[in-house]
Amino acid sequence: MRITAVDTFVLGTPWRDLSYVRVSTDEGLTGVGETRMLGHTRALLGYLEEAARNHVIGSDPFDIESLVWRMKHGDYGRAGEIAMSGIACVEMACWDIMGKALGQPVWRLLGGKVRDRVKAYANGWYTVERTPEEFHAAAQRAVERGYRALKFDPFGPGQWELEPHERRLSVGLVEAVRDAVGPDVEILVEMHGRFATSEAVRVARELAPFDPSWIEEPVPPENLKALAKVAEHVDLPVATGERIHDRTEFRELFELQVANIIQPDVGHIGGLLETKKLAATAQTHYMMLAPHNVGGPVLTAANLHLAAGTTNFKIQENFNDFADEHVKRAAPGVPEVVDGYFPLPQGPGLGVQLDPDFIAEHPSQGAHFDLYADDWHFRGTREHTA
Fold it and tell me: Lower CB density within 10 Å: C or N end of the chain?
C-alpha cells in the first residue's frame, strides 16, 4: 500500500480554525487527522503541501516510524509547532488507515486497552459574565450534563499581577464553582501562563481551600526553573506541557520534577506514537498524562484511542459539548460523554468519517484568539470589548 494524496480542509469558528488532513492510498483506503492552530493555519497548510511532496506521497502508511522520522529530520532545521502539527495530522491518518485495513480500532494497535471508558472534563462551559452567580449557574449546567470534572480560567485578561479587586473576584469565581459542584466533582484551574512567579504562588495559595485537582501553566512555559519555584512553594498539583511541541523538550521538565501532570497536545507533538512514547517516560517519573485537546471530532477520537491503553492516563479535555457543538458533524463517530466518561471507540481505525461538504459550509472566519482581551472567555459568542 502506498500513499497517493494528502488533502487539507479547514473548518472555521469565531475563535478557532480546525485543520483536517485526508490521506489517500492506492488501495482505496483513506485516513484522517486533525489539529487546531492558533493564528498559524495557513503556515500549516503550506508546510503540508511541501511535506506531502517531499516525504509523504509514495510512503507506506504502515511505516509510521520511518515516515515521522523523515518528516521531522529529513528537512535541514528544527521541527517546531508548524512541522510537528503537520506530522501529527499525517501520523493520525496513517493509524486510521492501518485500523481500517486490519478491521481494528486504533487502540488495539497501540497495545490494547487498560480501561473501558475515559474520564472527561468539560471546557468552554463558562461563556457567561464573570460574576460568582453566573459561574455558579454555568457550573451546575455542566454537571447536569453528566460531567464530573470542569476546567476554567477565572482570571479574565489578567497578566503578570492581578489588582487586589481582580484577585478577589477570580478567587471568588473558583469558590462559586466549588460551591455549585460540591466536593466530589474535580475542578481544574487554568492559569494560561499569565503570572509572575510570586503572583502565581500567591494566587495558588488562595485557591487551595477549594481543592483544585491542578493548577495549569501558572507561569509562562518558557522558563521551567520559574515553574519549579512555584511547585516548591504550593501544595497543589501542577499541570503543564501543551505548548511543548517535541517530546525531547520535556527532558528538563522531567529532570526538574516541576509538574505532576503533563499535557501534551497529540495534534502538536507529532501524533499518537510520539505521545505514547512521552507517556511512558512520564510514567518512569511518576507523572500522569492529561492531553490538551481544543480540537474537533477527529482529534478527540485520536485522544480516546491513546487514553484507552495508556496506564498513567488521568483525564481527557473536551470542548465540543459546550463550544461550537456543531463541529462534531465534521467527522461523526466520536462516542458521546455519558456520566462523565467517554466510551471507547469501537469502529475500525479512528472510528470517524470526515464530511468535507459540511466543512466547506463552515469556512475559516480568520479566527483570532487573544487571552489578554476583555471577555475573551466568551470565545466568539459575543464580541470582545477590547
Answer: C
Q: For 330-383, what is each residue's pLDDT tens digit?
A: 999 999 999 999 999 999 999 999 999 999 999 998 888 899 999 999 998 764
Q: Are strands 149-152 and 341-343 parallel, antiparallel or unpaired?
A: unpaired
Over its C-alpha atoms, the chain yields an Rg (Å, rounded) of 20
Q: Which domains does the chain have, with CATH numbers?
A: 3-104 (3.30.390.10), 108-350 (3.20.20.120)
Secondary structure of 188-216 in HEC code, one letter for each residue: EEECCCCECHHHHHHHHHHHHHHCCCEEE
Q: 289 is written with which cell numbers? A: 498524562
| pLDDT exceeds 50 at position 208 | yes
User: Among the residues of the chain, which ranges form H helices?
Assistant: 41-51, 64-73, 81-102, 106-109, 132-144, 164-181, 197-207, 224-233, 251-256, 272-284, 297-308, 356-360
Task: Specify whether 285 is catalytic.
Answer: no
pTM: 0.96
Looking up cell 471530532, which residue turns up? 297
Helices (H) and strands (E) in the chain, counts: 12, 12
Cβ contacts of 264 within 8 Å, gap of 6 or more: 241, 242, 244, 247, 250, 275, 278, 289, 291, 292
Spatial CA neighbour of 48 closest among 30, 21, 24: 21
d(CA 35, CA 43): 13
Active-site annotation holder among 136, 245, 268, 292: 292
Cell numbers found for residue 99: 485500523
d(CA 166, CA 376): 16
Given 192, 268, 305, 377, which residue is catalytic? 192
Question: Is 248 exposed, middle or buried, given 0-12, 13-18 or 19+ CB atoms closer than 10 A?
Answer: exposed
Q: Which of 111, 50, 113 has its CA nearest to residue 79?
A: 50
> What is residue 376's three-state secondary structure?
helix
For residue 92, the tally of other CB atoms under 10 A from its CB is 32
* 192 included as an active-site residue: yes
